[in-house]
Amino acid sequence: MLIQPLMNENTEIDWQYPNPYLTDINVSPQDTDRLGHTNNVRYLAWLEDAAWGHITELGLGWDVKEALGRAMAIVRTEVDYLAASYAGDHLLLGTWITSSDFKYQSTREFQLVRYQDHKVVLRAKMQFACIVLKSGRLSKMPVEFVTAHRAGLEAAGVPC
């Protein structure tokens, strides 16, 4: 289950960028694989859910994308698995928009941290391309996309 976390003000996590969009995750037994740790498919689903939540918070919810006939499609995902997580673990997933050409593409990075010991479980990066919803063809970003991406970059402390 994904919810926005209630952060303890004493919690000091070493995030790779400032102002992460945070998703709170409690690993359930259904999230684990035969080896007893979190299945990599669950990690990918959590990354995608966090990306949707963040971009929606930046003003680009599905309703806006549908009205504009455009969306940002994932074209590449890189995941570095740094530690295992298990049923019962409480994880915090931070995400940021870290680059954009404000025309066709953007990049988003993720950092997944085990809350109990602040261990980084994974780091990931997704690259996106703006597409026309009806055809799937590459498209220039509408101004609404540019505005949201600029706000995301500024929040992450990345020069625009």
From TrEMBL:
SUPFAM superfamilies: Thioesterase/thiol ester dehydrase-isomerase (SSF54637). One of its GO terms (molecular function) is fatty acyl-CoA hydrolase activity. It comes from the Bacteria. Keywords: Hydrolase. The keyword tRNA processing does not apply. The keyword Hydrolase applies. This is Thioesterase.
